[in-house]
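Q: What structure does this chain adopt?
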Amino acid sequence: MTSRSSGTPQHIVLNKPYGVLSKFTDSADRPTLADYVGVPHVYPAGRLDMDSEGLLLLTSDGGLAARLTSPSFKVPKVYWVQVERIPDESALLRLRTGVQIKGRWTRPAKVQLLTEEPLVHSRSVPIRVRKSVPTAWLRMEIAEGLNRQIRRMTAQVGHPTLRIIRVAIGTIQLGRLLPGEWRVLGLGEVQQLQELHK
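A:
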């Protein structure tokens, strides 16, 4: 998938907004990446669910995309996750050691209960809030990408997910990009990505 326009692979980081599909076309005319990124011949390396937000890497380098999304390379991905109620140590331990989803065990995750709410942008569709139910933010790092994995993991330990924002893939950080904004990766960042799977 090398860019035909220049011969040089293109690599872009997008802050995918809530409610946007991780693809460029949709037969149902729902919001897609094409509404935000006009760079030709780049494709998402992995995906974020329509109702998840944050860092999405787009690249014209098909080999790099395949390696970044392959479970065998165990590329770490970091998320801020807002859940219902405050998880206790028992729930956190279960997330850290792995839970069973559809007959298979997840790999251990790095999970931290954040003591302060992270600085996040307001969402186009606010989360559902129940006044009698407190919420908490977790920092979760996983190295696999099962379908709706984080939502299923937190639900399994009794803490349904309300909001997910991916903030890092390997060494690449979301940084200060606003929802819908994107930037081109620097040469050093690309080299760091390539080093992840060596």
